[in-house]
Design goal:
Shape of chain B: globular
Oligomer: heterodimer
CATH architecture of chain B: Up-down Bundle
Structural class of chain B: mainly alpha
Order of helices and strands of chain B: HHHHHHHHHH
CATH topology of chain B: Ferritin
Number of helices of chain A: 13
Distance between the termini of chain A: 35 Å
Helix content of chain B: 55-70%
Number of domains of chain B: 1
CATH superfamily of chain B: Ferritin, core subunit, four-helix bundle
Number of strands of chain A: 2
Shape of chain A: globular
Structural class of chain A: mainly alpha
Order of helices and strands of chain A: HHHHHHHHHHEEHHH
Strand content of chain A: under 5%
Largest interface: A-B, 48 and 46 residues
Number of helices of chain B: 10
């Protein structure tokens, strides 16, 4: 197979335009790559690809992996306080799934020639991000339901098209992730349903959670199309299939009727069915808040980062011991 | 004959599983590797499943018809009959791994014996639990070897963990009227009888891990009578508060 050439180490940076294909050979490779994209075929790790394509994917897959891992914290916050053994088992399994998703995604990123530990370092340095949504606190058990219903619902809306992403390992990881996320969304809906059809206090708890998670969930689908930095190139490369605003509309169209079944009212007075458009109308997102949270000033950014860093640092001696043991026993096996 | 010996004996097992599951679940998002975050939660989930099955059987045996949540959330410290080892705080990863090695080796021997219980339901629960617990013991064994025979630091941490936890192992094998009566009924093994298999396995693993069992005279006990360590009260307070804050509701 063709080699990819040296891997650019500026992993934290955004996609840059232009590839590394110089001269006539380069032009032929570029054309072959472009033809695969246009034929809606998958690019595999050993295929030639433009540097910018590789960097964009590393950035996106790493951000996705980090989101799964940081996303364990807000829900994990309730594992030790789950109100029934059944809910506890469901929540533990769910948080464990998120860890599993993180693992697949780091592996998918590794096929692009980076190491998981490099990506974790970039996360700790604040040079790679994770989804803004996990910077909000979980204040009651109903938040577990609201995260499942709204946050996982928004994530699915974003991720289902990624099952057709042009990069094979990412697309295949997404197939399994989406199956599990779809189950997560149903468990969130089922929890909120139990609360909203329980006592008045439980209903109030569910409504309060939806009030707090509704807008951040719409916003997590990204800035409006007019301001989205990476969208155009990603769409040309078959990494992204729908614009942020299209995804937001799909998401609202999915959850607005579900809210009725839940007997919960989304905190948006402008939310109503528009017969003419065949879609729900909804009010404006506070993208200024999204910008603040993404740039580090959300309610839990510092806490989430410190938690992950502490877990990583506390575990350093364990990883060192595993490496020392492996080296010792490899040496004695070779002797 | 102790009244309800069979029910008390199943309750002891259920409480061991629940409490150990809760302690392991506290590791979620704190483990040293992503793989071990998944593994510890997996073990915690297995243990939670075992606890739920044994609470359900206990409710039939003690005739109270209590729900699994009644057992988990509505009893105070003095009514829990788990051993003291499972409630010990997580400490560092070495402490958690060693606790898991000591517990799952015990639980495996116990579940193996329970597969021939005269109580058909307990035997069926045990048949499934044996397979799960074999994995728990393997996971703890692999890490005990790596940490014991890894770096100087990891070795020292394992030694400290042994010093802290070893005293609590004596209680695992104590027999009393309940356990003797349950054994007489054929419901479960007498803990005394689990000792030989446990000793043989633990000695071999610790030896392979270059670890030495500390000589200790202190043998704390009381868990089976509801006399627990102070940290256990905090664990229950956290675990039970939400359930108790909304009496009688469905979640």
């Amino acid at each position: 197979m063709r080699s990819n050439g040296p891997i650019e180490r500026d992993l934290a940076g955004s996609a840059v335009s232009g590839g590394d294909a110089g001269g006539a050979v380069g032009d032929a490779r570029e054309a072959e790559f472009q033809a695969l994209i246009e034929a809606d075929q998958r690019i595999e790790p050993r295929d030639w690809m433009p540097d910018a394509y590789r960097k964009t994917l590393i950035r996106q897959i790493a951000q996705h992996a980090h989101s799964e891992i940081i996303g364990m914290q807000p829900e994990g916050n309730w594992i030790t306080r789950a109100p029934s053994l059944r809910r506890k088992a469901i929540l533990m399994a769910k948080v464990q799934d998120e860890a599993g998703h993180g693992l697949y995604l780091y592996c998918a990123a590794e096929t692009l020639g980076v190491d998981r530990s490099e990506l974790i370092d970039l996360l700790h340095q604040g040079r790679q991000k994770y989804s803004s949504i996990f910077n909000y606190p979980t204040l009651t058990y109903a938040d577990v339901g609201a995260i499942g219903w709204l946050v996982d619902g928004a994530a699915i809306t974003n991720q289902i098209p990624l099952c057709r992403c042009s990069f094979g390992p990412y697309a295949r990881a997404m197939v399994r992730v989406c199956k599990e996320e779809s189950f997560h969304q149903r468990q969130g809906f089922e929890l909120l349903y139990a609360l909203s059809h329980g006592t008045p206090e439980q209903h109030e708890m569910a409504q309060d959670a939806v009030n707090r998670w509704w807008w951040p969930s719409l916003e997590m689908l990204g800035p409006p199309d007019t301001e989205s930095t990476h969208s155009a190139q990603s769409m040309a490369w078959g990494i992204k299939r729908f614009s942020n605003d299209e995804l937001r509309q799909r998401f609202v169209d999915m959850v607005a009727p579900q809210a009725v079944v839940l007997d919960l009212v989304p905190p948006d007075p402008a939310l109503r069915w528009n017969e003419e458009r065949g879609h729900y109308d909804f009010g404006p997102c506070d993208f200024e808040e999204l910008r603040r949270v993404v740039s580090g000033d959300g309610p839990c950014n510092r806490q989430r980062a410190a938690h992950h860093l502490k877990a990583h640092e506390d575990g350093a001696w364990v990883r060192a011991a595993a490496a020392a043991y492996a080296a010792k026993h490899a040496a004695s096996a070779a002797a | 004959m102790v009244a309800g010996a069979a029910a008390v004996s199943t309750l002891r097992i259920a409480d061991d599983c629940l409490v150990l599951s809760h302690r392991l679940a506290q590791w979620s998002s704190w483990a040293p590797t992503l793989e071990d975050d998944i593994a510890l939660t997996n073990i915690a989930l297995d243990l939670l499943g075992q606890a739920r099955a044994m609470y359900a059987r206990t409710a039939e045996l003690d005739g109270t018809g209590r729900s699994e949540d009644d057992y988990a959330f509505m009893r105070d410290e003095r009514a829990f009959v788990n051993c003291l080892l499972v409630e010990q705080e997580n400490g560092d990863f070495a402490t958690t791994i060693l606790r898991q090695l000591l517990c799952s080796t015990y639980q495996l021997a116990q579940w193996q014996a329970l597969t021939t219980s005269t109580d058909g339901q307990v035997a069926a629960i045990a048949a499934k639990a044996v397979k799960e617990t074999e994995y728990h013991r393997d996971h703890a064994t692999d890490w005990t070897l790596r940490l014991g025979d890894g770096t100087d630091e990891s070795h020292q941490r394992m030694e400290s963990a042994l010093a802290a936890l070893w005293p609590f192992t004596a209680e695992l094998f104590e027999s009393d009227d309940v356990s003797r009566d349950a054994a007489g009924l054929g419901v479960g093994p007498d803990p005394e009888d689990l000792r030989a298999a446990w000793d043989a396995y633990i000695t071999r693993v610790l030896d392979d891990a270059t670890l030495v069992v500390p000589k200790v005279s202190w043998k704390p006990t009381g868990g089976r009578q509801g006399l627990h360590t102070e940290a256990f009260g905090y664990m229950l307070a956290e675990m039970q508060h939400l359930h108790r804050s909304f009496p009688g509701v469905t979640w």
